[in-house]
Amino acid sequence: MWNYFKKLAKLMTKKTFTMLPSGVREILFNAYIEMNGTSHIFQLLANLNNVARVVIRGNYGDITGSPNDQAILLKYAQNGKWADRTNEIISEFFKRNNTEGTYIDIGANIGLTTIPVSIMHNVVCYCFEPDPTNFSYLQENIKNNCTEDNVKAFNLAIYNEEVELSFEKSPINFGDYRIRLGEDISSFGENLWETIIVPAMPLKNIITDIKKPLVVKIDTQGAEPYVILGGGNILSNADLVIFEFSPYMMKRMGSDPEIVLNFVNSFPYVAIANGENSPVQSYLSGKEAVLILREFFDNSIKQANSNYCDVICSLSECK
Fold first, then answer.
1. What is the pLDDT of residue 209?
2. Which residues of 18-31 are buried (b: 16+ CB within 10 A; e: fewer)?
3. Cβ contact 117:87 at 8 Å
4. Nearest 5°: phi and psi at 208?
5. Same domain for 90 and 30?
6. What is residue 45's predicted lDDT score, i.e. its pLDDT?
7. 299 near 251, Cβ under 8 Å?
8. For the residues 270-278, what does the mean pLDDT come to?
9. Is residue 50, in this structure, part of any structural domain at all?
10. Residue 167: what pLDDT?
11. Which residue among 5, 110, 283, 314 has its CA within the 20 to 30 Å range from the CA of 103?
């Protein structure tokens, strides 16, 4: 009976709306857009019409992704770019080194931190994305936007051993996919997310021949300690490494932040920024950066928040 009344109410509402003058309907529609945003309307229309993938035009080319991604692809649609500061730091580094070397993108998603670097044809790019759907978009975006054969893509998670892992997927942020280890402990409902099984391998087992200089970007939602453990001589010989430092996600995953802090301490120049939109103010020594990051970790855990920062580690001060 309840379902009957719900259907009746829906039909009456629809009929009432269609009886309104067209000008009034337009005012109501515009008010709805103002309240919810054009992206919400776009997602509703895409889902109603069974649209599984869309192409967004921006600074990095025509990028394919899911219409339901309310984070990465949406930001690309709004701004024509993504991770602009990170991409600029990496590109400027290679330009200072005659636009050649090796770039490793761990957590490549759909390619928005690989494609801007790949335009430098003498830079060999390795990119890793565990999720099969994101990886299919990544492959398509590489094919459509990378004009030279300098990008190698792997449908893998990078870890400290060869194993299959449970992988949880945010329903709204298609860049917020995470390795799930142990119990389904969660402060923000991640234990309710869909999970899949993905293959994982150590980086040192995949890449053996590196053309220097080497730049590495790591965006693995708390798995950075495991990535570093499995990095071997590859990561220890990197000239520039950029990664996220997320106390909550590392603690939830049971990973050891000291592995990351010891890694940071091995670099003479380290910068810390509060997210992608914050500029890099100045470079510290590795030792100074470790003190700040350790305090950041302790405060974040005490306050039970999900704050994170970006860390840029370099053998020379980036401009």
1. 84
2. eeeeeeeeeeeeee
3. yes
4. -120, -25
5. no
6. 73
7. no
8. 89
9. no
10. 96
11. 283
* Full domain range(s) for residue 184: 82-314
Q: Please tell me whether residues 173 and 289 are part of one structural domain.
A: yes
Nearest alpha-carbon partner for 112 in 64, 183, 171, 184: 64
pLDDT score of 208: 86
Torsion of CA 260, 265, 269, 274, to 10 degrees: 40
Half-sphere exposure of 67 (CA within 13 A, CB side): 17
Residue 108 CB burial class (10 angstroms; 0-12, 13-18, ≥19): buried
Tens of pLDDT, residue by residue over 43-55, are 777 777 888 899 9
Q: What is the mean pLDDT of residues 261-271?
A: 97
Number of C-beta neighbours around residue 165 at 10 A: 20
Closest CA to 217 of 287, 115, 143, 286: 115
The structural domain count of the chain equals 2
Report the Cα–Cα distance between both ends of the chain, in Å, rounded.
68
Q: What local confidence, expressed as pLDDT, does residue 2 receive?
A: 47
SS3 assignment for 166-216: EEEECCCCCCCEEEECCCCCCCCCHHHCEEEEEEEECHHHCCCCCCCCEEE
Closest to 90 (Cα-Cα) out of 81, 77, 79, 101: 101
Rg of the chain taking only CA atoms, in angstroms: 22
What is the value of pTM for the model shown?
Answer: 0.89
Distances (CA, A) of 142 to 57, 89, 295: 14, 21, 40
Q: Is pLDDT at 235 greater than 70 in this prediction?
A: yes
- For residue 279, say if its preceding peptide bond is cis, omega within 30 degrees of 0: no
CATH classification at residue 220: 3.40.50.150
Lowest average pLDDT, out of 1-5, 100-104, 162-166, 232-236, goes to: 1-5
Structure tokens belonging to residue 16: 């009432």
Residues 227 and 91 in one domain: yes
Same-domain check for residues 92 and 211: yes
